[in-house]
Amino acid sequence: MLDAPLDGPVCSACWNAVRLCTPPFCRTCGDPLPSWRAVSLALEQCARCRRRPPLFHAGRTAAEYEGALRNILLAFKYDDRRVLARPLGALLRRAGTEVLHGADCVVPVPLHAWRRLGRGFNQADALARHLGAPVVRALWRIRATPPQTGLTAAARRLNVRGAFRISPLLSRQAREQWLEARIVVLVDDVRTTGATLNACAAALQRAGTREVRVLTLARAAPLEVAKSRASGASS
Q1: Contact 139/107 with Cβ under 8 angstroms?
Q2: What are the beta bridge partners of residue 144?
Q3: Are residues 177 and 185 in contact, defined by beta-carbon separation less than 8 angstroms?
Q4: What angle do CA 98, 102, 103 make, to 5 degrees?
Q5: d(CA 207, CA 43)
Q6: What's this model's pTM, rounded to 2 decimal places?
Q7: What CATH number is associated with residue 124?
């Protein structure tokens, strides 16, 4: 039962059940580390970032993609519960304080036009509006890529390679103001292997950004994303 039904479709018990990511964090991707004893104190990096450094400079994720948060995100994305953008955005903003500090703008990861039309909105864009920084829709998704579900990490990278470009609607003045030699924060709802974020970061770097950071609401194993899509609509 909802404590305050006018505040949204999720009760306080469900919000309290969200498992937040806690430090120590990898200084590059922002994933929680098992303990400081498991990594080099000099590097402060997870094994994945040491093995294949991402194209972005720093990242942070708010919570684990499981249980309550997974159900909340499914309702947000597929049941048209857009009112959830505000509390989810607040959760993301609290987790991303360090990543947002000093940033010039936030850039939502775009959906392909056909997918956005079918869903009615872009969830990353809705979250970005609640982060307290200018929102710049700098990217276009130029290929309607197949869902990443079930793909290996290598296949995911190949799937989104070249799928993003700087929006042709962005004026030369806007590029100079928000991208060139600037610090940009990419925003998305769920991160799995980071392939999509890397592809977006590559496009932004080609536009001359000084630093690309990433901020995501949840982190998930590919299996968790597959489970969610099986129980909800295709993302």
Answers
A1: yes
A2: none
A3: no
A4: 95
A5: 29
A6: 0.86
A7: 3.40.50
- 26-35, 69-78, 170-179 — which is least confidently predicted? 26-35
Point out the least confidently predicted range of 64-78, 89-103, 147-161. Answer: 147-161
Rounded Cα–Cα distance for residues 72 and 24 (Å): 26
Neighbours of 67 (CB within 10 A): 13
Rounded CA gap, 209 and 178, in Å?
A: 9
Q: Domain total for the chain?
A: 1
User: Residues 143-160: pLDDT tens digits?
Assistant: 766 556 666 667 677 667
Residue showing tokens 């720093």: 58
In single-letter form, the type of residue at position 21 comes to: C
Token pair, residue 178, equals: 């928000």
174 lies in a domain? yes
78, part of any domain:
yes
CB 109 within 8 A of CB 200: yes
User: SS3 letters for the chain?
Assistant: CCCCHHHCCCCHHHHHCCCECCCCECCCCCCECCCHHHCCCCCCCCHHHHHCCCCCCEEEEEEECCHHHHHHHHHHHHCCCHHHHHHHHHHHHHHCHHHHCCCCEEEECCCCHHHHHHHCCCHHHHHHCCCCCCECCCEEECCCCCCCCCCCHHHHHHHHCCCEEECCCCCHHHHHHHCCCCEEEEEEEEECCCHHHHHHHHHHHHCCCCEEEEEEEEECCHHHHHHHHHHCCCC
In a domain, 2, yes or no: no
Query: How far is C-alpha 223 from the chain's CA centre?
Result: 18
End-to-end Cα spacing for the chain: 28
| CB 103 within 8 Å of CB 72 | no
